[in-house]
Structures are given as C-alpha cells and as structure tokens.
Specification:
The chain has 489 residues and is α/β, with parallel strands linked by helices. It has two domains: 13-259 and 463-483, Aldehyde Dehydrogenase, Chain A, domain 1, CATH 3.40.605; 263-453, Aldehyde Dehydrogenase, Chain A, domain 2, CATH 3.40.309.10. The chain has 14 helices and 23 strands. The strands form six sheets. The chain has a seven-stranded mixed β-sheet, sandwiched between helices. Strands 10-9-8-11-12-22 form a six-stranded mixed β-sheet, with helices on both faces. Strand 8, helix 5 and strand 9 form a beta-alpha-beta unit. Helix 3 (90-101) packs antiparallel against helix 6 (190-201) and helix 9 crosses helix 10 (305-318). The longest helix is centred in the N-terminal third of the chain and has 21 residues, at 105-125. The protein is globular. The structure holds NADP nicotinamide-adenine-dinucleotide phosphate. The site of NADP nicotinamide-adenine-dinucleotide phosphate has 27 residues, from helix 7 and helix 8.
Length: 489
C-alpha cells in the first residue's frame, strides 16, 4: 500500500482505491494507458482482478451504515468540497483527460467543470430526497413514505466521457447515502482517478467510494453475482447493457442503463440552412461523433438540402484536426485504432451500396501517428447502409432528404434507439408535432446541446432505462418505504 501521489499529471503509476487505500492489483498486473494522438503510453494503472472487486464491494458494504447515517447536509459538505477541488484543478485534470481520450483541451475542461457541477447539484439535491405524508382512508391510521438508499452500487462507465458519465452515478448515489464501486473503461482511468483524489481530499470516509479496474467481464460478473451489490448503474453499449440486464435478474438487482443512440437531426424549410448546417457540423464532429447523443442521421427538407449540404461540406473541410493539447485544435484523434477501422468499413459499406462521398472517408494522412480520421459527409444513402442501421459512433454525417412532417417522424423513429433527437424549425406547430411524435428521451429544438445538469438525461426504447442528472437522477439510488401507523384510539 502507498499514499496517493499528489500530482495530477500523467506519467505516474496509479493504483486501485479500495477501502480508503491505494493498492496494487492482487495479481500484480499493470496496464498501460495510451495517448490516441501519439499512440504512446502515458501512464500505467494497476489492472485488478475479480477478487479485488469483491474486496471493494465488501468495503462498500462495511462503509454504508456510517455513511447512510450521516445527515444529507454532512454528506453534501464533502461532495461540495470535492466539487470545489475539481474546479480548482480543472486545467490539470483536463490535460490528463485529453491525453488519455483524445478530445481537445477546451472540451476536456468543459467535461471536468460539468463534473464539478454534477457533484454540487446532487450535494444539494440529496437534501431534498423527500418522503410523503399520505392522507388516510381509515380513521386512526397514518401513512408515511421514507426514501431509503438502495445500498451498495456497482457503477460502470465508458471511455468517451470517462469522468462526466461516472460522476452522474457517483454524485447522486453518495448524496443519498449509498456507497459505490466504480469501474471506468480500461483505456481511460486516469482522469477519474484525479476525481477520486479530490473526493479523498474533501474528506470522503474509507470504503464509501472505491475504484477498481480489471477485466470487464470479471468485474461485471462480480457486480451481477455478488448479492451485496443492490444496484448496477451502467453507461455503455446496448449489447453490454442487455447482458447486465439479463444477469441482474438473478438477484432482481436495480438497474440504470444509459445505452447507445442514433439521433436524428431534422431540418425544416423555415430554418436557416446555413446557420443550421454549421451547427450540425460542430455537433456531429464533436469528439469525432463518439458521443451517445451525437446527431447521426441527418434529414433535411428537400427545398433547402442543396444549400445545407454545400455549407456543411465546406465547414467539415475547414475543421482543424490535431493533438487535443495544441491550441486551436477542433477535432482530436479517434479513441482507438479499432474505432477508426470500423469507420472506414462504414464508409465502404455505404459507398458500396451507392452512397456518394462528398468529403473525408479516410484516415487523415497529415499525421504519421494517431487515429485521425477526416470528417466525412455522405449523401444518396440506401436505408440498409450500416451507418444508418447500426450506431456509428464515428465522424460520419449521412444526409438524407424528406418532404413532410409525418415522413420525418417515421424516419426519426425507424431505429431501435431512442436517446436524443434534434429538430430545427421556427414553427410552433411543427415543434409540438415533432416533440410529441419522436420517440427519444431528449429533444433539442434549435438546440444542438440539450444536456445540462438540472434536466433529465436518458433514453427510450433500447437506449436504456432510468434518468440521470436533474432531480430524477436521485430516484435510481432510492427505495420508497411505506410506513403505515395505527394510532391508539
Ligand atoms: P462498452 O463496450 O459497452 O463499454 C462500456 C463499459 O463497459 C467499459 O467500462 C467496459 O470495460 C465495460 N464492459 C465491457 N464489457 C463488459 C462486460 N461484459 N461486463 C461488464 N462491463 C463490461 O461501450 P464503449 O464502447 O466503451 O462506449 C460506447 C457506447 O456507450 C456507445 O454505445 C454509446 O452510445 C454508449 N454511451 C451511452 C451513453 C448514455 O448516456 N446513454 C453515454 C456514453 C456512451 P472495458 O473498457 O474494460 O472494455
């Protein structure tokens, strides 16, 4: 065991955090973390085992009575202090995030500041986990409800927003008195470790939050099979989400699932095609389209599609690719080689089925190293193109035409996903018809960035279940207890 390194910079070896101690993996194994811009290793992290995960779960169980007994106000003090520390260190943590994930520094800093907001929001919201007093129907009886922390939480997060997305689980869970074991994606553990540093410095007691990393299936299986874990909160692919859902049935575990998306982006003829095309390009290529709410199917009214396409192609060609640490970089590398290769296959598949490639479509050859992919625009796609049927998670913008509102709604809903959707119109009737007709958990109307800490985030259909952020974000970590009291006559 050793003390936590104080430095926030990369280059250090970092360990697992179990029961208030930084510890090596029980197997002694370490895993390199690579920079997708340089393909070079930047750090090593202990790569734990199922046994380590089990120890972390035990620690969370032992810490839970003490943590749950604190008042929400006392828990909030620690979470708000952590939020302050995260803000103070945002520049350093953002550098770490850029180096492990690839996104440009300003975006990385935005993610860290959003994480601080999430801790602060839930620190306050935890104070408002109200129960009810329910009017009685039988004389002499009284009915109350208490909100009770669900228990030990197993949380798993993806690599595209490694800090923001796990904080949406940690902050509400901790605010209401749950304890937690967190598993980030194997390739992006460092920035989350920096968040743990802040929580520890803020005074989080031992065992309340634990950090493990290791073979994903082993840790997932431990979360599923260990009866101490009462709730699994997962953000990642629909495929893994379904597997966890099947597994969770064994102990009827509570589940929150934030899964894949395939967001439609619909532009009506009354919208300004130039302004919307520029917003569409920024929204589409942010983080290389590796965003669950990334717009990924563009439906533009036939009367304005020519202008929209012309402006979008020019804007995509102008985007500045580069190392996320360099000033002025708008688009970093893709996260990993496999993701880049998959993007090439998506473009080949669409082109093979008759689509027209207007720009991009290949690895950016200006870079000797790194997974840089040219922002890509396709038109003339057939409905069976894989970029339309599968979640692409890639810097590819397929543009199609439509004519009527009903056609736009039918096309938008023609997917198993239902996470986000975007509608551009200035007409109130069209706005309401689209908002009511589209099957998605979040709809941005003239707004390419609808997510914010105080509003619910989550999906319909195969995009998941439950909502994160907002006051609803507490619900997944609370059980309702009904107390029925018979008074003396
Ligand atoms: P993924 O492959 O499902 O991985 C997500 C996390 O699950 C990682 O920590 C991964 O660990 C872990 N994992 C993989 N196999 C597992 C298993 N058998 N048991 C337990 N855990 C397992 O997804 P991804 O490729 O990282 O992320 C992209 C996906 O996440 C996309 O589908 C995207 O839409 C979705 N996403 C959804 C939201 C949302 O809020 N709805 C937000 C962001 C991303 P390893 O890293 O060790 O493999």
């Amino acid at each position: 065991m050793s003390a936590a390194p104080a430095a926030l910079s990369t280059g250090t070896y970092r360990q697992l955090y179990i029961n208030g101690q930084w510890v090596d993996s029980s197997s002694g194994k370490r895993n390199p973390v690579n920079n997708p811009a340089t393909e070079e290793p930047i750090s090593e992290v202990a790569f734990g085992t199922r046994e380590d995960c089990k120890k972390a779960i035990e620690a969370a169980k032992n810490a839970m009575p003490g943590w749950a007994k604190l008042t929400a106000w006392d828990r909030a003090k620690i979470l708000k202090k952590a939020a302050e520390l995260i803000r103070e260190r945002a520049d350093g943590i953002a550098r770490t995030l850029t180096m492990e994930q690839g996104k440009p520094l300003p975006e990385a800093k935005g993610e860290i500041l959003q994480t601080a907001d999430t801790f602060e929001w839930f620190a306050e919201e935890g104070k408002r986990a109200y129960g009810d007093i329910i009017p009685n129907s039988v004389p002499g009886k009284r009915h109350l409800t208490f909100r009770h922390p669900v228990g030990v939480v197993g949380a798993i997060g993806p690599w595209n927003f490694p800090v923001a997305l796990l904080s949406r689980k940690m902050a509400p869970a901790l605010a209401v008195g749950c304890t937690i074991v967190c598993k980030p994606a194997t390739q992006t553990p460092l920035s989350l470790i920096n968040i743990f540093d802040c929580l520890i410095e803020a005074g989080l007691p031992a065992g309340v939050a634990n950090f493990v990393i290791g073979p994903a299936k082993d840790i997932g299986d431990e979360f599923i099979e260990n009866p101490i874990v009462r709730k699994i909160s997962f953000t990642g692919s629909t495929e893994v989400g379904k597997m966890l859902m099947r597994g969770a049935a064994g102990h009827v575990k509570r589940l929150s699932l934030e899964l894949g998306g395939h967001a439609p982006f619909i532009v009506f003829p009354d919208a300004d095609p130039e302004a919307v095309a520029k917003a569409a390009v920024m929204g589409k290529f942010r983080n290389n389209g590796q965003v669950c709410i990334s717009p990924s199917r563009f439906f533009v009214h036939k009367d304005i599609s020519k202008k929209f396409i012309e402006v979008a192609v020019a804007a995509a060609k102008n985007l500045k690719l580069g190392n996320g640490l360099d000033a002025g970089t708008e688009i970093g590398p893709m996260f990993e080689k496999k993701a880049m290769e998959n993007t090439i296959k998506l473009v080949e598949d669409a082109s093979g089925k008759g689509a027209t490639l207007l720009t991009g479509g290949k690895r950016c050859d200006r870079f000797a190293k790194g997974y840089f992919f040219e922002p890509t625009i396709l038109t003339g796609l057939t409905d069976d193109a894989r970029v339309l049927t599968d979640e692409p998670f890639a810097p590819v913008m397929p543009i199609m035409e439509f004519s009527t509102i009903d056609e736009a709604i039918a096309k938008a809903n023609n997917t198993a996903y239902g996470l986000a959707a975007y509608v551009f119109t200035n007409d109130l009737t069209t706005t309401f018809k689209m908002a009511e007709g589209i099957e998605a958990g979040m709809i941005g109307v003239n707004d390419p960035v609808p997510a914010t800490v105080q509003a619910p985030f989550g999906g319909m259909k195969e995009s998941g279940m439950g909502r994160e952020l907002s006051r609803e974000g507490l619900d997944g970590y609370l059980e309702t207890k009904h107390i029925s009291i018979r008074l003396k006559d």
